[in-house]
Design a protein that fits this description.
By secondary structure, the protein is mainly α. It has a domain of 119 residues. The protein contains twelve helices and no strands.
Length: 276
């Protein structure tokens, strides 16, 4: 639903009264804009929920209050998921990963203001997830971020920590200082082994890299992407109880992986894309 400004201003004015504890009759233009943004953010948050009311119209005030409650609920759910994930969190030696998860995310929960600044994301989310978060702010962004890291941890914890760290070290000895996604390196490693039928744990030599390069060059881009997708589905079905949400998250790298490894094969530098 689209609300007129005359319906929105009284809501923002009410927030202004709460913000100043009614001790002031005026606020800055910038603060007024921020409070209006808070109103619109909550109304947008509730837009999906309004569809669940059977199409009944809501006043702007009702839509705002409903959306605000949804914001609060999302914060609580995200905190619960974070606490579940952090109990067994492992950064595998990557400093950016550890700093982001152990310090930055708790900082968001500590300082997030759902009432007066729900649109503020607060943290920069320096650790990049496989699925980029570019179209969300506030708790919407952080909820996705925590969810994505939760999936990564589920995937990585199924492997021995020493094994994961060894693959990362072979990819780049100073990986602990880098700002890339470590889960991507590991899933590409596993899929690379599956592509050539090589068991995990067997450190590949030049022969295996040559086999992988030959297979890639002999497969067109579309078929390579579909092949990798099938192998990922097999892996999730066999090792992760068919977790569809985990599979959906990891699928986000398939196209990039297929393109990058084909380019690498053409230039005889497959090792730069996948560690076998």
């Amino acid at each position: 639903m689209i609300y007129e400004m005359e319906e929105l201003v009284p809501i923002a004015a009410g927030l202004a009264d709460q913000y100043t504890s009614k001790e002031s009759t005026s606020i800055s233009y910038e603060r007024a804009n921020h409070l209006m943004e808070a109103v619109l953010y909550c109304i947008d948050q509730g837009s999906e929920g309004r569809q669940l009311t059977g199409g009944r119209g809501l006043t702007a005030k009702m839509a705002y209050e409903y959306g605000y409650e949804l914001v609060i609920q999302k914060v609580k759910r995200t905190q619960e998921l974070y606490h579940e994930m952090i109990m067994e969190f492992c950064a595998f030696g990557n400093e950016n990963y550890r700093e982001t998860v152990e310090k930055a995310i708790p900082g968001f929960f500590r300082y997030y203001d759902a009432k007066f600044a729900p649109r503020e994301t607060i943290i920069t989310m320096d650790y990049p997830t496989i699925c980029p978060i570019t179209d969300e702010t506030g708790i919407n962004a952080v909820a996705k971020y925590v969810e994505y890291i939760f999936y990564e941890q589920k995937f990585l914890r199924a492997l021995p920590q020493e094994y994961v760290c060894d693959i990362l070290f072979r990819f780049q000895p100073d990986y602990g200082k880098q700002f890339y996604n470590i889960c991507q390196i590991i899933i590409r490693h596993i899929l690379g082994h599956m592509l050539i039928g090589e068991p995990l744990g067997n450190r590949a030599g030049e022969k295996e890299y040559a086999t992988l390069g030959k297979l890639i060059l002999e497969t067109d881009a579309e078929h390579l992407e579909k092949l990798i997708e099938r192998l990922l589905h097999q892996l999730i079905f066999e090792k992760y109880e068919g977790d569809q949400m985990l599979e959906c998250y990891l699928q986000a790298d398939i196209r990039n992986f297929a393109v990058e490894v084909q380019n690498a094969a053409r230039n005889n530098v497959v090792k730069k894309v996948v560690v076998l």
